[in-house]
Write a structure and sequence with these properties.
The structure is a single chain. This protein is α+β, with helices and mostly antiparallel strands. It has seven helices and 15 strands. It has helices spanning 2-15, 23-36, 60-63, 196-200, 366-385, 389-402, 407-432; strands at 92-99, 105-115, 118-134, 140-159, 168-180, 202-215, 228-242, 251-252, 258-269, 272-282, 294-304, 307-316, 319-330, 333-342, 353-360. It has a 14-stranded antiparallel beta barrel with strand order 1-2-3-4-5-6-7-9-10-11-12-13-14-15. The protein is elongated and about 110 Å long. Mean pLDDT is 85; it is low at 1-27.
């Protein structure tokens, strides 16, 4: 335990080491980065509503530069690929805090669990930023919060999940968002206008769809887990409605920030994982409006079973970002600390910090079943090697009752039956002679 605590404090200090860089040099560097990426600024950026849907929860996914569509190995999949709930190792309850820009914050609470190949999850998030209104004399006339609150229900299923091919996971998120704009005052009377905020508030109704393939390729270590994952998702497909406080009726708001994404992750050696994402925004109201894509890359290195370092980078329009984080586990609590450096705006301030805490609630007995499957399978191999093929078949049939797609047992049964048939044919041929 002391070793874990020491490691935790060490990485926390490491993440924030070097933040006292000379401010003048930092400003010069930031300006140079901004100039370099100027040609990649998206002229249509900011033309969609509910921009908080583009903010990551924080935690591990942001540490990996948001390259998570093809990884989905923790509850952050809810933000990237809804197919992820059907492949989670454990039930998880998580809270996230993401300290965003200009005094804004993004809070999330989420839960996911899995019943064999069926996954389920729920999530609620709230983005908020202080809203204060002053009149021409500098007197405060109104103060509250601008908010965007999102709720999500997730369902997914992993088809054809076997020993070699880990299946095709498909998933769906059903989401609703509410943009809350506070009432504001009349410029002449300084009186709060009734329903003025409601007129600009909005309701978003949308869905996410996702797919995830898992298989083995160039795998140089032993593990039940597939070392390659390929994911695809379509996020925020829907509409937003506004003008609720007006007598003229509800109207369509600006389009939602719809995104088509593809990602891949690969673990060549067990402690090292690389992930890559490509995301293409689209405008559902006008498909001719072109929005620039974004690219992400992430790298994680597991020093031990309870501690990992993560780094990532993302280029989105003219706004490059670099992230670094650490994930560590103490008993059933898994924590992540992340810092994102926004190179196009500022270098020195600690302006982008996110934290997450996940309580790992077990795997519903799947590990125990896997151990039983392995024991039965090895027992069957011993019987097979002793030419006790019928007994081996009986044992391997017990394996298939626990895991009907355990390919080694299926192949073993086929081989044992072939051996029995061969010896029966030899006996019959001898009788004929």
């Amino acid at each position: 335990m002391m070793k874990k605590i020491f490691t935790t404090f060490f990485i926390c200090g490491f993440l924030f080491f070097g933040q006292t860089t000379n401010q003048l040099s930092a400003l010069d560097f930031s300006s140079s980065v901004t100039d370099f990426f100027y040609d990649y600024v998206d002229p249509n950026e900011g033309t969609t509503s509910f921009r908080s849907l583009l903010i990551p929860f924080g935690g591990k996914a942001e540490s990996l530069g948001n390259a998570f569509t093809g990884l989905c190995d923790d509850i952050s999949f809810l933000n990237f690929n809804p197919a992820g709930s059907s492949i989670q190792k454990e039930t998880q309850f998580a809270v996230f805090h993401n300290s965003w820009i200009s005094d804004s914050n993004y809070e999330t609470i989420a839960y996911t669990t899995r019943f064999n190949n069926f996954g389920f999850g729920v999530q609620a998030s709230c983005f908020y930023v202080p809203f204060t209104e002053y009149n021409i004399f500098g007197d405060r006339t109104a103060g509250s919060y601008y908010t965007e609150t999102t709720g999500c229900i997730n369902l997914s299923y992993n088809l054809l999940n076997g020993y070699n091919f880990k299946g095709l996971a498909i998933g769906l998120n059903l989401k609703g968002s509410w943009r809350g704009v506070p009432n504001y005052a009349d410029n002449d009377t300084n009186q709060i206008i009734e329903n003025s905020g409601l007129n600009q508030s909005a309701l978003g109704l949308m869905a996410d769809f996702g797919f995830l393939f898992r298989f083995n390729l160039l795998k140089f270590y032993n593990s039940r887990e597939a070392n390659v994952k390929v994911g695809f998702s379509a996020r925020n497909l829907g509409v937003a409605l506004t003008n609720f406080g007006s007598n003229s009726g509800v109207k369509l708001d600006d389009p939602l920030p719809t995104i088509l994404a593809a990602g891949i992750s690969i673990t060549l050696l067990e402690p090292i994982t690389l992930s890559f994402d490509f995301k293409q925004p689209i405008n559902l109201f006008d498909f001719s409006t072109y929005l620039l894509p974004s690219f992400s890359v992430g790298f994680s290195f597991s020093f031990t079973t309870f501690f990992s370092m993560l780094i990532g980078a993302e280029i989105k329009g003219g706004n490059p970002k670099i992230s670094a984080g650490a994930e560590f586990q103490l008993s059933q609590l898994r924590m992540n600390l992340n810092y994102t450096l926004d190179l196009a705006s500022s270098v020195t301030p600690l302006n982008r910090i996110s934290l997450s805490g996940k309580i790992m609630l077990g795997d519903r007995g799947r590990h125990i079943i896997d151990q039983q499957v392995d024991e039965y399978y090895m027992e069957g191999l011993k019987l097979y090697s002793n030419a006790q093929w019928q007994e081996a078949i009986q044992i391997w049939e017990q394996v298939l009752k626990l895991n009907k797609r355990f390919d080694p047992a299926i192949l073993g049964i086929e081989s044992a039956r072939a051996q029995i048939n061969m010896f029966e044919n030899i006996k019959n041929s001898l009788k004929l002679e």
